[in-house]
UniProtKB/TrEMBL annotation:
Residues 72-170, 171-269 form the Lumazine-binding domain. Its EC number is 2.5.1.9. The keyword Amino-acid biosynthesis does not apply. This is Riboflavin synthase. Pathway: Cofactor biosynthesis; riboflavin biosynthesis; riboflavin from 2-hydroxy-3-oxobutyl phosphate and 5-amino-6-(D-ribitylamino)uracil: step 2/2. GO terms for biological process: riboflavin biosynthetic process. The gene is LOC110767865. SUPFAM superfamilies: Riboflavin synthase domain-like (SSF63380). Lumazine-binding repeats lie at residues 72-170, 171-269. Catalyzes the dismutation of two molecules of 6,7-dimethyl-8-ribityllumazine, resulting in the formation of riboflavin and 5-amino-6-(D-ribitylamino)uracil. It comes from Prunus avium (Cherry).
Length: 280
C-alpha cells in the first residue's frame, strides 16, 4: 500500500468540511479581487460549492498538454505534512506553507512535491523552520480537494521520483483527474473499508484489482459498483496510521488520479490505431 517515514504525530480529526471551506473561501475572495478570476459562492444546506470562472486572460500563452509528463511519483507517501499557512501572495496568487521534514531533504527551488496527490512546485523553503511553500492556481482549486484545507490540516507528501528510485507503487503523474466523495468507512478487524463515489467519466477507468491514486496514495481497487457510481478499497492498519485518508469523514472529498495506462489505451482505440495495424 503506502510506505512512509512518519515524522509528524497524528492530530485530531480535521474540522467539518463546511467550516474549513468557509475559512478558506474568505481568502479566495481576496484573490479574486486581485486577479482575473471570479469566485462565486453558492450556499445550500450543509453544502458549499465554489465556482471559478474559466476565463483565461492570457489565452495567447500556450500551456503544456495535460498529459505531458514533467514529473513522476509512485503513490508511496513519504510523510504527512501539516498546513502552516494559507493566504494570498504578493503577486495576487494563493500560497500554501507546509511543515515537513523528510521531503525537505535535498530540496531545491522549483522541485515538484505531490501534496495529496497534486503535483505542486516549491517556491520557497526553510530547512531551519522545516517548511516549504507552494503556489495554488485557480485551475488547481477547481480540480482538487485542496480547497478543503486549512491551517492544521494534514496532507500526504511525496517527492518526485529520481531515475534511481524503486517503483514501490505505480506511475502517478500528480495530475489530479477529479475528486471523489467518501460515502462510507467501515472497519473490519484492524482494516478499514472505504467506498468512494466518483463521476462516470472517471469511473470508466477504474477496474477491480487495478491501481488508483487517492489523495496521492497508491491503492488497489477491490470492487467497482457501476450502479452506485463508486468503488472501494481497503486500508491495512499500518497505512491507516500514515496517510490522511482515515482522518477524513464521510462526505469529504478526495483527489483521484486514475491509472494513465487506461487513458492511453482508450486514446489509441479511438484514434483508429487498431484498424490501421490490421490493415497494414
Amino acid at each position: 500500500m503506502a510506505a512512509v517515514s512518519p515524522s509528524l504525530s497524528l492530530f485530531s480529526r480535521t474540522p467539518e468540511p463546511s467550516v474549513r471551506k468557509m475559512s478558506i473561501l474568505s481568502k479566495f475572495h481576496s484573490v479574486a479581487s486581485r486577479t482575473h478570476c471570479n469566485f462565486n459562492a453558492i450556499f445550500k444546506p450543509s453544502t458549499l460549492t465554489l465556482f471559478i470562472s474559466t476565463q483565461r486572460p492570457h489565452a495567447h500563452i500556450k500551456s503544456p498538454p495535460r498529459n505531458t509528463i514533467r514529473c513522476l511519483f509512485t503513490g508511496i507517501v513519504e510523510e504527512m505534512g501539516q498546513i502552516k499557512q494559507l493566504g494570498t501572495a504578493e503577486n495576487g496568487g494563493f500560497d500554501m506553507k507546509i511543515g515537513a521534514k523528510t521531503v525537505l531533504e535535498g530540496v531545491h527551488l522549483g522541485d515538484s512535491i505531490a501534496v495529496n496527490g497534486t503535483c505542486l512546485t516549491v517556491t520557497e523553503f526553510d530547512t531551519q523552520l522545516s517548511d516549504f511553500t507552494v503556489g495554488l492556481s485557480p485551475e488547481t482549486l477547481r480540480k482538487t480537494s485542496l480547497i478543503e484545507l486549512e491551517p492544521g490540516s494534514l496532507v500526504n507528501l511525496e517527492r518526485a521520483v529520481q531515475p534511481t528510485s524503486r517503483m514501490g507503487g505505480h506511475f502517478v503523474q500528480g495530475h489530479v483527474d477529479g475528486t471523489g466523495e467518501i460515502v462510507s468507512m467501515e472497519p473490519e478487524g484492524d482494516s478499514l473499508w472505504i467506498k468512494v463515489k466518483a463521476s462516470k467519466e472517471l469511473l470508466k477507468y477504474v477496474v477491480p484489482k487495478g491501481f488508483i491514486a487517492v489523495d496521492g496514495t497508491s491503492l488497489t481497487v477491490v470492487d467497482v459498483f457501476d450502479k452506485e457510481d463508486s468503488f472501494n478499497f481497503m486500508l491495512v492498519a499500518y497505512t491507516q496510521q500514515n496517510v490522511v485518508i482515515p482522518l477524513k469523514k464521510v462526505g469529504q472529498k478526495v483527489n483521484l488520479e486514475v491509472d494513465i495506462l487506461g487513458k492511453y489505451v482508450e486514446r489509441l482505440l479511438s484514434s483508429g490505431f487498431v484498424e490501421s495495424i490490421k490493415s497494414s
